[in-house]
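Lab notebook, design round three. We kept the backbone fixed and only want residue identities now. Task for the bench partner: fill in a sequence for the structure below.
Input structure tokens:
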């Protein structure tokens, strides 16, 4: 028996669903690193012999492994182990419950979005600038959280790097502090004054991107996010002192 055939051993117990038994056995070999990315699985005939199952069962099992993203079949060549999928981001609305959580997200955004603004100013297209202007107008007119999210996503898209977009899309409205907490109230600000200040910060970011000023865009984004962080930090300290 070859080294590869020895890596896929039949399960110790029989499964009512024979295909599932094959899936669990091969899946365990992949997860344990016995079968490594790029390696070829044993042939159907070998797997049939190892597990005492029919060719139909083996093909069903391979189909399940393909659907799980563990293997791929190259017609006429064989079935190969894939690189394991990246783990999902463990950030969601359910994990952001406190002011401290919102502050942590802001710290992440400062490191991420300041560079996104720099790249956007260098790479943006005229059409992308027009879309940013439209989103900014909606923010100014109504203070819409959705327009605020869209404005930041458009900046991410203008980088030409899909990973910025992927992360901000995953975060969704959690990137906007006032979608989670009443920022103006916590900072003891008049809501109109608070929104006017935030709008000016957005305008500074937009204007730097408009004039293709990467350093100015980076600085404006850092100012915007750092101001949000500072307002919430003070509110957190006041809440803790009151408690």
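Proposed sequence:
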């Amino acid at each position: 028996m070859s080294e590869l055939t020895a890596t896929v051993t039949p399960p110790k117990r029989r499964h009512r669903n024979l295909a599932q038994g094959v899936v669990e056995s091969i899946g365990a070999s992949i997860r344990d690193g016995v079968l490594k990315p790029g390696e070829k699985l044993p042939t159907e005939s070998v797997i049939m012999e190892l597990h005492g199952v029919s060719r139909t069962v083996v093909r069903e099992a391979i189909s399940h492994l393909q659907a799980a993203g563990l293997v791929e079949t190259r017609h006429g060549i064989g079935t190969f182990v894939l690189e394991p999928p990246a783990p999902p981001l463990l950030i969601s609305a359910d994990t952001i419950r406190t002011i401290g959580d919102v502050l942590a997200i802001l710290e992440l955004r400062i490191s991420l979005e300041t560079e996104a603004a720099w790249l956007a100013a260098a790479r943006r297209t005229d059409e992308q600038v027009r879309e940013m202007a439209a989103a900014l107008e909606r923010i100014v007119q109504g203070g819409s959280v959705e327009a605020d999210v869209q404005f930041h996503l458009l900046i991410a898209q203008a980088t030409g790097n899909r990973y910025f977009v992927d992360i901000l899309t995953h975060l969704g409205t959690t990137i906007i502090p006032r979608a989670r907490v009443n920022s103006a109230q916590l900072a003891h600000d008049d809501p109109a004054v608070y929104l006017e200040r935030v709008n000016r910060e957005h305008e500074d970011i937009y204007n730097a991107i408009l004039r293709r000023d990467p350093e100015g865009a980076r600085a404006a984004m850092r100012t915007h996010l750092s101001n949000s962080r500072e307002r919430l930090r003070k509110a957190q300290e006041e809440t803790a002192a009151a408690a």
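Keep this in mind before ordering anything: The chain has a mean pLDDT of 84.
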